[in-house]
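User: Hi! I'm working on a homework problem where we have to compare a predicted structure to a textbook description. Could you give me the structure for the chain below?
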Amino acid sequence: MLFRAVLFFGSLLPSFLPAAEITAAHFEMAQRYSQTHGGIALRVEQSGRVLFESYAPGSSADTAHRIFSGTKNFVAITALIAEQDGLLDLNEPASKTLTEWQHDRRRSITLDQLLSQTSGLAPGADIIDDAHDQMAAALRVHLIASPGTQFHYGPVGYQAFGEVLKRKLRRQGRSVEGYMRDKLLDPLGIDPPYWKHDDAGNPLMHAGMGLGAEDWAHFGNFVIHEYQGYKKQPVRHELFMRLFIGHRVNPAYGLGFWLNRPEPSPRPQKMTDLQPAMDGDQLYPGGPRDLIAALGTGHQRLYIVPSMDLVIVRFAEGGRFSDGDFLSRLLTGRPRPDAHTH
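Assistant: Happy to help. Predicted structure tokens:
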């Protein structure tokens, strides 16, 4: 398969990247690694300017790919907007809205815990995936740990949050998807080519969205602007930064975003097909501390480095892959000697 790759810079990258010796060869090395490990698209931007892009034959920057758990990042930011609007408080118990939980141990689960995967609920993939109404199915999932004490990665927390948002918006005659479009997607100029729904018509909050590389990179640039406190963005800076506060039971995960920090030992339970590309217990050991990432099943990736004003989008069709090895090749021109490819 012959890929079409385009470089947009001269022999050296701008001086505010980590080293003046980073050249086009680094991007070509990263592209070769990505392609030989299932990659079908790669786009790198700095300060909103395309430095490098490569796509499989017949595809382009606007070809839609399912981003799977990258959807969670949009949902988490929508939750912050809803708090800013006074619609909810992330510290409130979900049972304030989900009356089904008011008379058992789930009554103390907060909205923050649903979004940080620390609710104590079973991950729920076996219950959620084949359900007619996936939001309603999430309400039938039971605790396997006390809220706030363990990290369990899966769809249930985001589907349960979707039901909370759905009920709150119903009082205003609004839909979840309509609210997300009005408050986040439309202001950003992002129109997902598709968004998978369950059989009841609910958008999948945990993994349903499809985007092209250009739009996902645009979202990454929006995150950088918010991170840097750009005043014209739709979320207050101090509220937005809540996305990047790791939980004590898993410092490597905030609200929807993965953080470049070591995980606790023993490693928390998570979906086995999502995270094994991590090297050891960290996304990119030795890499930028402010590296944050959206990680989707099949190694769909959005990497964001605010200190470099750098956004990297990767789409793939599965394959063996190491986040640390890929990023090391791109940023330093060298593979990680201790990388573990899965």
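For your comparison, note the following. DSSP finds ten helices and ten strands in the chain. Residues 9-20, 270-280 have pLDDT under 50 and may be disordered. Good luck with the assignment!
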